[in-house]
């Protein structure tokens, strides 16, 4: 594998982050070939990226890896919500069995040198017993019981197994924080689109975000630079959920915690937001990853902080704020004038 | 006032913790202290309300408050204050209105910063501290001693005794450091996960700058140069029987010492007197505690006997004493991995706090005054 002759295969190419990554790699002269695997064609047209329709769960994947003669595998074909996959059972199939097949094929590929796997900070779960800033070394205790987080935990364990069997591979696992941006759709992005945002009564989690562009940037870095290991990837700083909702100008509806699963069911059936149990936990205790290792060892500095990522996302989506900041500022000026005019009598006497 | 000595114990000088008037933040008003029967000389200064100062004088012929108050800058400020008319000037009113309105707008639009641990400085300083201050100044009349032992900057670990059924002692210590320390430092306290998982209390405790009692959090905060507060007794101290008051419980497993050794942060022992009496526990209803998943379910003098009114803490008089810092910088770098060093240092801190407690208790006139 020499620079100028990098051959990269991206799974889950129809996802917005994967498509953006493909177009960045296309523009990079070090990369001679970009292939993209998925079940459905990407909505965005690809450049010189070759689209290969294949199911990760089938042994066909091994043939793809062999015939494209790739040296770098970027595994982004991970579904985050049951809605996208068509049910939780199928989602688990696609994520876990797909990864198992893919990595089994990778183990047999002699030309393969590098593997990048996308994971999520959700593998840490949401617990008040987690340290305030979670480092990559925190032993993953009881795996999250459901949903995407559980799939990600299993995907990481297959990745560790691959590393054991092929110590010559440079494997990078990126635990991305909740990603927001113009095109990604996650339960969190849909959540901010709700007319009234449900929160858990008496709780206010810290939220750490990553802008879509920075997610692409981090995966690109992992693809092109040899940076083995596990890294939390997130924008600087945190915001409180209440703060984020106020920035969006939305009214929030605090719901007692025992009623949240019921509400999540209603929202799911209405087709608005697909919240799984682990994401409800996130609304209670949140999670914040420590990004020291990302900055110092991985050498990546996201351009957007958590707050900037959220602001950009809210501006891009044109969510209609109920509490318009401009209106509030006008109100503030009017109140100020009125209060100063009708202020304490003594104050006016001093003025006259 | 006669000095009582501990039954069969040594006589501990009381002057360290007594006769030191509490200073309210930003003012130099003196609080009357001490009795009338002793023959020590009094301070020669006159207080702000025109009466002779009743504090004992130091070597300068003035008490601790007025010795400082004679500095030139302070005098100028006093003259300016005296010359100011009683009516609030217009500018002040305008500024106040503008301040409140912009505060409200910032809160409503989310335009305020929080740090990685969720510390919301603005909320803490503008809302929470003013709410807790009446408890501090009027209800428990907290007096602090030795606040100058907390360094002005850099990481420092404050280790205190825990008591009072509900952790009001942590809230008051936080306010004491913020209000009385010249640098107005914010104490970052390490809370149990039970506090963080409790509705309302959990987020509030994060917003006021607290973190989880976990080595990672403690080391990171100390390395960042924060003042960190820790109550190593945990629930054993908080929920102990009233008959065990002011008897320090086991100091965990000395994790706090390890953290201090790793970061080289000095340890400031803190003795809190008064918090034991706010909810005197007479019984622990274990089955109920187990049912509710709590470390203890207290029956106190007032609860549940008086119903909801029993939730009101008793207005004991508090003294928070900050002891001399114990340096950890002289230990070798691998000292944190040596259990003997850790346990010895832990015991030393514990003994220091116990001594400070006994000393303050001896000088106490009554629980409530």
Description:
The complex is a heterodimer of chains A (352) and B (369). Chain A is α/β, with parallel strands linked by helices. Chain A is 43% helix and 17% strand. Chain A contains 14 helices and 13 strands. In chain A, the strands form four sheets. A seven-stranded parallel β-sheet of chain A has the order 3-2-1-4-5-6-11, with helices on both faces. Chain A has a two-stranded parallel ribbon with strand order 7-10. In chain A, strands 8-13 form a two-stranded parallel ribbon. The longest helix of chain A is centred in the N-terminal third of the chain and has 20 residues, at 88-107. Chain B has a domain at 115-127 and 139-278 and 313-362: Glycerol-3-phosphate (1)-acyltransferase. Helices cover 37% and strands 10% of the residues of chain B. In chain B, strands 1-9-6-2-5-3-4 form a seven-stranded mixed β-sheet, sandwiched between helices. In chain B, strands 7-8 form a two-stranded antiparallel ribbon. Chain B starts with 63 loop residues before the first helix and ends in a 7-residue tail after the last helix. Classes of the chains: A alpha/beta (352), B alpha/beta (369). Chain A binds chain B through residues 127-133, 135, 201-204, 206, 237-240, 242-247, 249, 257, 285, 288, 290, 323, 325, 328-329, 331-332, 335-336, 339-340, 343-344, 346-351, and chain B through 85, 87-90, 93-94, 97-98, 101-102, 104-105, 107-118, 120, 193, 196-197, 199-200, 202-203, 206-207, 211-212, 214, 216-217, 220.
